[in-house]
Please model this.
Amino acid sequence: DAGITQSPRYKITETGRQVTLMCHQTWSHSYMFWYRQDLGHGLRLIYYSAAADITDKGEVPDGYVVSRSKTENFPLTLESATRSQTSVYFCASSESRQGSNEQYFGPGTRLTVT
Amino acid sequence: DAKTTQPTSMDCAEGRAANLPCNHSTISGNEYVYWYRQIHSQGPQYIIHGLKNNETNEMASLIITEDRKSSTLILPHATLRDTAVYYCIVRANYGGSQGNLIFGKGTKLSVKP
Model:
């Protein structure tokens, strides 16, 4: 049971490049989330998705694009990476919102933009 | 939005109970209290949640005051592996943005041998 996985775990890219972070969950959870974590800011929500083909902005969506063509995958794309997007990115999933807001987090992707 | 107040840091001796407080004086009637923790360099981990009643699971106990304005997370026998940042979050179980979790700075718990 793999749970929720993220790839790559570490990535170094240059300013202006496009980079995609992958997230895959094996539970068929409806909800998926992308957070970024920076020193001094804690975890901030970038985008979330309630189901396949349904996505919505979180607190800090600018500079990011998401898609959700399949329930199990929720890729995050930085279309033109900037140094301010250097961060640790966490993906999460949850079954539903009705009974519980219990989210399961992936191990994170550490992204450095040079 | 309901907000929470937690101490910045706490120490606990290994084997003793760790009691982590959280104030949420503006909590609404339909908002739950959630606790997550984040061990260094890992993703956050769900611990427990509750609405009104006290809750217990294999990881911890959650004590919520009768007026719901504060709560305490109890780790009954802290180990070195419980050293982490603990986040107290209040949130309703809605499907839209109102249901999104908002992580504050949390309490850094250091369990010492």
Observations:
- The beta strands of chain B are 9-13, 18-23, 31-38, 45-50, 55-56, 61-64, 70-75, 84-92, 107-112.
- The two ends of chain B are 39 Å apart (CA to CA).
- Chain B has a mean pLDDT of 92.
